[in-house]
């Protein structure tokens, strides 16, 4: 987060091939920065991006809004019940069957969870059950569910928590048996080719590379998983990145065989940020260093988040969407 009394997040679209920031639309990749001009100012926190839409929480005045990253159109949203003070936690989801967007939120006490359908009736409903792990920013929406990064163990099996958007209930999903109780330095949840993917990062000192194992869920009902490997030589990544775990899986590009990985290294007032495009089929990869010449950013910029999504030119009009009828 940027220095100073009023740190803010900025949206900068960029070309995914050369990773040069630009203010011209259309574009497919958005970068979020703390700090300087000129684009859209965001106050942390914000949700995941779903079909080019994102929910933003503003502290002063207390307000939650929906933003279309392509058209820059905004829509104010009502706060969840019990949010007269404190900072709410919320996630954005999409039901691909009913074509409905839903917001999952909690009160500042986090005793209850609420869900709201973006429709002609913007009202919050209490979720019937409570989550096993806290709702956090580390989540992704894919295949009609919101998945969280933090895993847990049930009967010696590794499981991840998800929220079924259509049924409006929290559930648990068993990760492939081969994973078992194996230790990973870090794990991620992401979207690979429109499918939920759980990724485990392993950094063993006696290995010449960083290994990331991807388990992609082909069929949620049959628990049909496909395993793939990402291997990046340590010599291609600065040592401090390995030490501070500044590596994350963004997802895949328009080519589902190419995984997008973000790495960053903060050294004093300088930030070395790069993207790694890894081809799962050929195991070839290329590293692109982000260049900020066009943005004239100051030393207040200390980090970024990356997302890859398609454009959404549809207006924020949900008046014809019926409210959810979950039984």
Automatic annotation (TrEMBL):
Residues 44-295 form the F-box associated beta-propeller type domain. Pfam families: FBA_3 (PF08268). InterPro entries: F-box-assoc_dom_typ3 (IPR013187), F-box-assoc_interact_dom (IPR017451). It comes from the Eukaryota. This is OLC1v1023912C1.
